[in-house]
C-alpha cells in the first residue's frame, strides 16, 4: 500500500490532521505510531518497564548493586549519591561505600531483558515500506518464541488481507524448507548407515567367496592325494590269492594287510559326501557309523577332538593359507600349483596331525623332593635335564639340588627313589641350568643373589658369583658359547658371566625386576628376558644400548621365557596367559588360555611343538603351539601332612604346580608342585 500524504510520521494524527489523506495512510500512521510506542522510541505515551529501572537515573540498571537496607541502584549512581550524601536515596539510611554489594541475580535478569528488547527492536526495524510493499525482515529466529508471539499479537489487528497472504506464503515456504531440511538430514544419516552396511556386507561376501573357493581347491587336492594312495595300495583280491606254501605268519600278515585296506577304503571321501559338510559327522547312518567308527577307533577319537577344537582349527587353517587367500588364485602350472599348495596346506596338515597325536598324560613315576614329612615348605622351583637327557636335577626352597638318574627312576620297581648326588646351597634355590657341553656342569641361582657353578659329579662348587644386590630369579647357560652364563635379578639387572673370569663381563640395566632370562638356543649373542614391566625384552649382546625388540601384550609381570625354536618365543605371565612371539614381529602370534596363574611361579617348558605349564589349581596343562586352548591337563593329588587330622576340602587347598621340564626329543614331561611331589608323565 502506498501513502498519498507526506506528513510527519512521528506526530500525533489527531483532529488537526488533514482529512484528505486516504484511509490506508491513516492505517500506516497508526501502525507505525503504535510500533514506536511499543519499542520504546521516545514519546509521551511510551510505556516503560519500571521493574528494572534505577531509582536515581530512571534508566535500565547498569551493574546492579544492592545496599545494606535492600535497595538496588546502578553502581555509578549509588557511588555518586553516597559521595554527595552518605544516605540511601530511597530510605535515607546512613550508608558508606562499604555497605553496597553486587546483585548478580538482578544483573542476569537485566541482561536477559535487554536481549529480548533488542530482538523486538530488530523485528520492528525489519518492516520496510508500507502498504503492499511492506515485507518482513530476514531472520526471525533471533527472537524467542514469546517475543515473536507478542509481535504477531500486537500487529495482527493492523494487517490487511494482502499482508496476511504475503506472510502466510512466506511462512508456508519457510515451513516446507524446514521440513525438507529435517527430512533430508534424517534420511541422509540413514542412507550413510545403509551404504556403509552394504559395503561391509559386500566385503564379507567377497571374503567368504574367496574362502569357499580356497576350501574347495584344498578339498580337491586332498581327494587327489587319497585317490593316489588308494591306487597304490594292493587290491584285496590279490591278497586273498594265498599260496599253499604260505606259512601261518604270512597268512596273518595278509589278513592284517586286508584289514588295513578296508580301513583305507572306509576313509575315502565319497562323491556324495563332498557337499554334506558337518551333516555327515553330526547325523551318520547306522551303517556309516559302523563303517567309519567301528573300523578305526583311533580315527574316531581324533575326529571327536578335532570338532571340540574346531574354531581353533579354522583360525589356524586360514592363518596358514593367508598368503593365497590374500593374493587370490591364479592359473599356474602343475608344478607351481603343487608347490603352492604344499607351502600352506602341508603346514596345516602337520598342525592337525601333531594336535591329534596324543590324547592324555600317563604317570610313569613319582618322587618326593623332601624326605622330611614334617616340613611343609617343599616347593620345587626348578627341574632341568642334562645335555644327554640321562640325568635331571631338582632344586627348590629346601636349599638342596638333587640329581636323579632318569633310567633308574623309570625302571625301578619300588616307588622310593634316591638321588645320584645331592648338593646343598646356603640359600633357597630359584633356578638351575645344565651346561650343554660339559656333562656334569650345573649352574644355580638363589634368593641371596648368588650364582653358583657346580660339579655334579663330585657335588662341589667350582665358581661363585656374588654381584647381584637382590634375589636372583633365573640363570641360563648359553648353548653355543658354553662358557657364557646369564642371570636375572630383582635388582633390575641382567648380568653376563664367563667361566674364565671371576666377575661379570657385562650388565644389562632393566627398568623393573627381572624374573626370567633365556639365551637363544641357536645364537651366542641373543638373549631374551621377562620382567615386572609386563614385557619381554630381546637383546643382541653385541649392542646392549637398546633392545632389538620389546614384546608388549601381557597385563602382569612376565615370569618365564622359553624359546620354541630359534625364531619363536613363548612367555608366561601372572595374567593367566601364555603368549607366543616371533622375534621379527612385535605383536604376539597367539595366546594360550585355560590354566590359572595369578601370583606364583608355575613353571614353563617346551619341546618345540608342545608347551607345558603349571597352574594354581594344582594341575599341569599341555598346549600345542598352533592352538589357543589346552590339549589336556593332569591333576596332582592333594597331599595331606602328617600333622593334619582332617582332610582338607579341594577349595581350601593352596597347592600349585611350581616347576615343569620337558625331556627333549621325547614325549616325556616332568612336573613338580608346591608340596614337593614330582611326577614323570608320558604323553600317550
Runs in which pLDDT lies below 50 for 5 or more consecutive residues are 1-46, 127-142, 274-295
Largest sheet: 4 strands, antiparallel
**Class by helix and strand content?**
alpha+beta
Strand fraction band?
25-35%
Rounded mean pLDDT is 81
Give the fraction of residues assigned to helices: 25-40%
Tally of individual helices: 14
Numbering strands along the chain, what is their spatial order in the largest sheet? Answer: 4-31-30-29
Count of DSSP E strands?
A: 31
Rg on CA atoms, Å: 46 Å
Distance between the termini: 107 Å
Outline: elongated
Q: What topology emerges from the helices and strands here?
A:
Elements: H1 23-38, E1 64-67, E2 72-74, H2 75-84, E3 100-102, H3 104-125, H4 145-155, H5 161-232, H6 236-240, H7 248-266, H8 279-282, H9 286-292, H10 297-308, H11 310-320, H12 322-327, H13 334-355, E4 361-368, E5 380-385, E6 391-396, E7 400-405, H14 406-411, E8 421-424, E9 429-434, E10 441-446, E11 451-455, E12 460-465, E13 472-477, E14 484-489, E15 493-498, E16 506-509, E17 514-519, E18 526-531, E19 535-540, E20 549-552, E21 558-563, E22 568-573, E23 577-582, E24 585-592, E25 604-606, E26 610-614, E27 619-624, E28 630-635, E29 657-663, E30 668-673, E31 677-683
Antiparallel strand pairs: 1-2, 1-3, 4-31, 5-6, 6-7, 7-8, 9-10, 10-11, 11-12, 13-14, 14-15, 15-16, 17-18, 18-19, 19-20, 21-22, 22-23, 23-24, 25-26, 26-27, 27-28, 29-30, 30-31
Organism: Odynerus spinipes
GO cellular component, one term: nucleus
Pfam families: WD40 (PF00400), zf-C3HC4_2 (PF13923)
Amino acid at each position: 500500500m502506498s501513502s498519498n500524504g507526506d506528513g510527519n510520521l512521528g506526530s500525533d494524527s489527531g483532529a488537526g490532521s488533514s482529512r484528505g489523506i486516504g484511509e490506508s495512510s491513516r492505517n500506516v500512521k497508526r501502525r507505525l505510531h503504535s510500533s514506536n510506542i511499543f519499542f520504546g522510541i521516545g514519546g509521551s505515551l511510551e510505556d516503560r518497564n519500571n521493574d528494572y529501572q534505577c531509582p536515581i537515573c530512571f534508566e535500565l540498571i547498569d551493574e546492579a548493586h544492592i545496599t545494606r537496607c535492600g535497595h538496588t541502584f546502578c553502581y555509578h549512581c549509588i557511588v555518586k549519591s553516597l559521595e554527595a550524601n552518605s544516605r540511601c536515596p530511597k530510605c535515607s539510611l546512613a550508608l558508606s561505600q562499604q555497605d553496597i554489594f553486587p546483585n548478580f541475580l538482578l544483573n542476569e535478569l537485566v541482561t536477559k531483558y535487554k536481549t529480548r528488547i533488542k530482538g523486538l527492536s530488530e523485528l520492528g526495524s525489519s518492516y520496510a515500506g508500507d502498504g503492499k510493499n511492506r515485507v518482513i525482515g530476514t531472520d526471525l529466529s533471533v527472537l524467542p518464541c514469546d517475543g515473536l508471539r507478542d509481535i504477531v499479537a500486537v500487529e495482527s489487528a493492523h494487517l490487511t488481507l494482502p499482508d496476511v497472504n504475503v506472510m502466510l506464503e512466506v511462512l508456508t515456504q519457510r515451513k516446507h524448507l524446514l521440513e525438507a531440511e529435517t527430512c533430508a538430514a534424517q534420511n541422509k544419516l540413514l542412507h550413510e548407515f545403509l551404504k556403509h552396511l552394504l559395503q561391509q556386507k559386500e566385503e564379507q561376501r567377497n571374503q567368504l567367496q574367496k574362502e569357499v573357493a580356497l576350501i574347495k581347491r584344498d578339498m580337491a587336492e586332498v581327494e587327489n592325494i587319497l585317490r593316489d594312495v588308494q591306487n597304490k595300495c594292493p587290491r584285496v583280491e590279490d591278497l586273498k590269492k594265498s599260496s599253499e606254501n604260505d606259512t601261518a605268519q604270512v597268512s596273518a600278515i595278509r589278513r592284517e594287510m586286508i584289514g588295513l585296506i578296508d580301513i583305507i577304503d572306509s576313509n575315502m571321501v565319497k562323491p556324495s559326501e563332498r557337499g554334506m559338510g558337518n551333516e555327515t559327522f553330526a547325523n551318520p547312518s547306522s551303517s556309516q557309523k559302523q563303517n567309519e567308527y567301528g573300523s578305526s577307533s583311533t580315527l574316531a577319537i581324533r575326529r571327536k577332538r578335532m570338532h571340540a577344537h574346531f574354531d581353533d582349527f579354522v583360525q589356524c587353517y586360514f592363518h596358514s593359507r593367508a598368503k593365497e587367500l590374500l593374493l587370490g588364485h591364479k592359473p599356474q602350472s602343475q608344478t607351481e600349483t603343487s608347490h603352492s599348495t604344499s607351502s600352506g596346506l602341508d603346514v596345516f596338515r602337520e598342525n592337525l596331525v601333531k594336535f591329534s597325536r596324543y590324547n592324555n598324560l600317563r604317570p610313569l613315576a613319582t618322587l618326593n623332593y623332601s624326605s622330611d614329612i614334617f616340613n611343609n615348605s617343599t616347593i620345587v622351583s626348578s627341574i632341568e635335564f642334562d645335555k644327554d637327557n640321562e640325568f635331571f636335577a631338582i632344586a627348590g626352597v629346601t636349599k638342596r639340588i638333587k640329581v636323579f638318574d632318569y633310567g633308574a627312576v623309570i625302571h625301578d620297581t619300588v616307588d622310593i627313589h634316591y638321588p645320584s648326588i645331592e648338593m646343598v646351597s646356603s640359600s633357597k634355590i630359584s633356578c638351575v641350568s645344565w651346561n650343554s657341553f660339559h656333562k656334569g656342569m650345573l649352574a644355580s641361582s638363589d634368593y641371596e643373589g648368588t650364582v653358583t657353578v657346580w660339579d655334579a659329579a663330585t657335588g662341589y662348587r667350582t665358581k661363585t658369583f656374588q654381584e647381584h644386590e637382590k634375589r636372583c630369579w633365573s640363570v641360563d647357560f648359553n648353548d653355543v658359547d658354553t662358557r657364557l652364563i646369564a642371570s636375572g635379578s630383582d635388582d633390575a639387572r641382567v648380568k653376563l658371566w664367563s667361566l674364565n673370569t671371576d666377575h661379570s663381563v657385562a650388565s644389562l640395566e632393566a627398568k623393573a625386576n627381572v624374573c626370567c632370562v633365556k639365551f637363544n638356543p641357536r645364537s651366542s649373542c641373543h638373549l631374551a628376558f621377562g620382567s615386572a614391566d609386563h614385557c619381554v625384552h630381546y637383546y643382541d649382546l653385541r649392542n646392549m644400548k637398546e633392545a632389538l625388540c620389546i614384546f608388549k601384550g601381557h597385563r602382569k609381570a612376565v615370569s618365564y621365557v622359553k624359546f620354541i625354536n630359534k625364531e619363536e618365543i613363548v612367555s608366561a605371565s601372572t595374567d593367566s596367559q601364555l603368549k607366543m612371539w616371533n622375534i621379527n614381529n612385535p605383536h604376539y602370534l597367539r595366546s594360550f588360555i585355560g590354566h590359572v596363574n595369578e601370583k606364583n611361579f608355575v613353571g614353563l617348558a617346551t619341546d618345540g611343538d608342545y608347551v607345558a605349564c603349571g597352574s594354581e589349581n594344582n594341575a599341569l596343562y599341555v598346549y600345542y603351539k598352533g592352538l589357543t586352548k589346552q590339549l589336556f591337563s593332569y591333576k596332582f593329588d592333594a597331599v595331606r601332612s602328617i600333622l593334619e587330622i582332617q582332610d582338607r576340602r579341594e577349595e581350601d587347598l593352596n597347592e600349585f604346580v611350581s616347576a615343569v621340564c620337558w625331556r627333549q626329543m621325547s614325549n616325556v614331561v616332568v612336573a613338580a608342585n608346591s608340596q614337593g611331589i614330582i611326577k614323570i608323565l608320558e604323553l600317550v
